[in-house]
């Protein structure tokens, strides 16, 4: 069974008003079990909208979304997925442990079960020594790891991530990418990962789905098969070939971002914005 099936989904906001906007048009997307799919495209092309539709936070105007064989709404009720967004979104008045326990409380687990599971998740993201800290006492990267631990706490078969590492420095980002890959491999989790970084998409994904703006459409689906997902993988010819392929797919779209200005430096070359 597929983890996600998005079938001919169109999403129009403010329909019938002067500010009507078709964020997505006729989008089809299937995510296989255990697959990590990245969504990449220029700002405003509907990446977040697509993720929010899968999470049942908003409803499609037309078309259907199926998560693990059931409706998106049913999947949400059953906490069939975990979500992590760009901002960690932790509760400042709860300790790290109690933030991770939150979805388990909602599930009605006993206090003992909650604590045991939350501690296990914190160990997974390397934060077992910070269980009693408050979010404000942690760095941005550590907060993001707490958010990932929380998203994983109910061991969801599906993880939905919207630029979760966008606010982090490059070193932290690369470390968390490796951690995420380790966790997904270990748990068999399927993942839909939104990013505007071409290199991040290529490094993490089994498949990179390229989108264009106004209206948001899927314009390419690029399969990635790196020799390894580690430092050697990042330096492999396959890695650079895929980066070029994704960049060309982005440029081929009518609404793709203009080429980076020379003054923006090397990093701009792998950024879709
Ligand atoms: N709640 C909303 N109401 C009206 N327009 C929205 C809403 N959410 C998103 N949009 C519009 O839909 C388009 C896609 O937005 P979004 O999915 O956030 O893009 P991305 O995440 O790719 O940057 C944009 O034009 C945005 O302004
Ligand atoms: Mg977005």
Automatic annotation (TrEMBL):
This is ABC transporter ATP-binding protein. Gene3D superfamilies: P-loop containing nucleotide triphosphate hydrolases. InterPro entries: AAA+_ATPase, ABC_transporter-like_ATP-bd, ABC_transporter-like_CS, ABC_transporter_ATP-bind, P-loop_NTPase. Residues 249-273 are annotated as: Disordered. Residues 262-273 have a biased composition (Low complexity). It comes from the Bacteria. Keywords: ATP-binding, Nucleotide-binding, Transport. Residues 4-238 form the ABC transporter domain.
């Amino acid at each position: 069974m597929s983890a996600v099936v998005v079938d001919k989904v169109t999403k129009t906001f403010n329909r019938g008003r002067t500010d009507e906007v078709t964020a997505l048009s006729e989008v089809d997307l299937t995510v296989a079990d255990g697959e990590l799919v990245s969504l990449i495209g220029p700002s405003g092309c509907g990446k977040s909208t697509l993720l929010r539709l899968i999470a049942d936070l908003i409803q499609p105007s037309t078309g259907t979304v199926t998560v693990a064989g059931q409706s998106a709404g049913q999947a949400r009720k059953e906490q069939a997925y975990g979500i992590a967004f760009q901002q960690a979104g932790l509760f400042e008045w709860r300790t790290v442990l109690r933030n991770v326990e939150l979805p388990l409380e909602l599930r009605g687990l006993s206090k003992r079960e909650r604590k045991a599971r939350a501690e296990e998740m914190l160990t997974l993201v390397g934060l077992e020594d910070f269980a009693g800290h408050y979010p404000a006492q942690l760095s941005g990267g550590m907060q993001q790891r707490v958010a990932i631990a929380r998203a994983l706490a109910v061991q969801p078969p599906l993880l939905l991530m919207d630029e979760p590492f966008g606010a982090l420095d490059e070193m932290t980002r690369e470390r968390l990418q490796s951690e995420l890959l380790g966790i997904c491999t270990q748990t068999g989790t399927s993942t839909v990962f939104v990013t505007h970084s071409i290199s991040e998409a290529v490094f993490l994904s089994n498949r990179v789905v390229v989108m264009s703006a106004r209206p948001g459409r899927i314009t390419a689906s690029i399969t990635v098969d790196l020799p390894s997902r580690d430092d050697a993988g990042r330096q492999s010819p396959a890695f650079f070939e895929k980066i070029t392929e994704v960049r060309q797919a982005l440029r081929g779209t009518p609404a793709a971002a203009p080429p980076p200005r020379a003054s923006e430096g090397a990093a701009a070359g792998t950024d879709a914005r």
